[in-house]
Amino acid sequence: MLEGLSNNLQKALSKLKSKGKLTESDVQEAMREVRLALLAADVNVRVVKQFVDKVRERAIGQDVQKSLTPGQQVVKIVHEELASLMGGSEERLRMAAKPPTVVMLVGLQGAGKTTAAAKLALSFLKHQHRPLMAAADIYRPAAIHQLEVLGRQIDVPVFSLGTDVDPVDIAKGAMEEARKQGADVVIIDTAGRLHVDAPLMEELSRIHQVVPADELLLVVDAMTGQDAVHVAESFSQSLPVTGVILTKLDGDTRGGAALTVRAVTGKPIKFVGLGEKIEPLEVFHPDRLASRILGMGDVLSLIERA
Amino acid sequence: MGLFDKFKRGLAKSRDAVFGRLTGLFQGRKLDEGLYEELEEVLLLADVGFETAIWLVERVRRLARETKATDGAELPQLLQRAMEDALADNEADMKVADSGPTLYLIVGVNGVGKTTSIGKLAHRFKNEGKKVLLAAGDTFRAAAIEQLMEWGNRSGCEVIRHSQGADPAAVIFDAIAAARARGADIILCDTAGRLHNKANLMAELSKINKVVERELPGAPHEVLLVVDGTTGQNALLQAKAFLEVAKVSGMIVTKLDGTAKGGVILPIVREYHIPVKWVGLGEQMDDLEPFSASAFAQAICQPDGSSG
Ligand SMILES: Nc1nc2c(ncn2[C@@H]2O[C@H](COP(=O)(O)OP(=O)(O)OP(=O)(O)O)[C@@H](O)[C@H]2O)c(=O)[nH]1
Ligand SMILES: Nc1nc2c(ncn2[C@@H]2O[C@H](COP(=O)(O)OP(=O)(O)OP(=O)(O)O)[C@@H](O)[C@H]2O)c(=O)[nH]1
Ligand SMILES: [Mg+2]
Ligand SMILES: [Mg+2]
Fold first, then answer.
1. Complex-level ipTM
2. Which of B145, B230, B231, B240 to mutate to test the interface with A (most CBs of A within 10 A)?
């Protein structure tokens, strides 16, 4: 199916032979294929529409580079716009003026929060920080145990109070413990929850009220489909989300949810997860993901050579 | 609470339920091209994917012609029928061994709900009076064994386990022996989450499958692929890859208690003929329902349960 799309695209693009400036019909034709590519990559339908409209306007009348066909030129513009939409903002984590810095991870069930907590802790460790992880998931069976195993693996302390204590108190306790131990970063692992689960969303707000996070990161599975729009909306409306971690990019998903989440929250994607092994999180490369979302490897490599 | 009610509840929670729009939006309008275009968009928003969206719209168009429907208000019923057509040969029954233990192998990518679904199935089978054994075949993920043991506690089922890092095939080998020795009816085998594009992990799964086939003739009686209902088009690639290495015979679609509609099952059922057997509608033990194509289609197309 994916190959089918790029074949169509190639065909559509090769039909456009006019040189000089991009005409309205050049752009129109190429954008139809771009739209399909974005939809196949799971970019939200409405985000696709806005994006396509905006890029179409921008593209018409632009000069076509000598070495490119008009269709390739359109894809080039689309690629640039995608990359600039997904990137641009400050990627670095905000550190508290007065330690410990608090990083809180939130998201749907199974997105990869606990794994990301350990990877993040390892990244901090590598930068000479002293992280502590807080086990604030009191719901999922063996969630605390999971964090403890990971903590032992990377030699990072884990603070927990069992499953009968309010997560707010666990977060508070972790802060005290961090000060006692001289840890300068506290990473709070929270339970996975649905964005429509009001009491659990409320719980996150309560944690954040008592232990304000310097970074409140929304963890999103890169394989998420159209629903990413609801997830991003709900989490960023009920919490001051500061950034996004995109997980499971080691799969073969096109990862269009990233564009959706970026467009909806306006918050930068700060890190990506590329595996189950606990390794430092990788920084996000907007241009690579833009290529992946477009799924137009051949066209894009042509353009890069041009 | 049945499947239909739970879906309804899920839809009610969503401010912008994808299909919830169907009922209101199309009332009082003519069934014309503009409306079909909007329908296509609604379907895309449910992760149905481009090809199946077109297939469904085409089907609706034909049904409209046949029934001489002209009013937009009739669209939900027509779409419901089209969806039922798409899911036509979805056989939701679970295969059972003629004699000896029945073994179900649960597979899927990371974090989709395999272990939780096993807990729910164990609870369900236990309530039906069956003796159920759980095999902790995920020896990789941190605390995967402890997680399954917690589900064993909750459902009152014994868990056969080795320690972390052990060979999963050996765990399942032991579980089969234990099931024979104890006269268990059902073995539910957990496996580690694995991305379908990782050749070594898929090879491991194929090895597990072979051990099962060898040790227990006729088994695995079902290989259930767990698909996260919030997944987009990648689920199709998952289905294809798991089908190849482990002869997937059915799906469990999880996390349909949120706002995701799990529309991606439509192309999977249509293209790969893998039936949906169960749906997951929450994190608790009884949040698992047998799949029914008509209930699914109705819950999606007519969430208010009006007519149809
Ligand atoms: N391949 C791959 N697997 C990942 C990645 N991140 C997490 N996982 C796996 O995804 C599954 C779920 O990860 P968790 O970290 O437990 O997810 P979670 O969000 O904490 O889950 P809940 O606490 O249940 O909500 C596990 O099997 C992880 O090993 C990633 O970047 N790539
Ligand atoms: N809301 C909701 N959450 C679910 C459902 N099924 C599973 N979950 C949650 O999803 C998360 C992951 O579930 P697991 O059962 O650990 O998933 P898994 O496929 O075994 O994960 P790995 O073994 O890490 O690959 C947990 O937090 C579960 O509670 C469901 O139907 N609805
Ligand atoms: Mg977790
Ligand atoms: Mg599991």
1. 0.94
2. B230
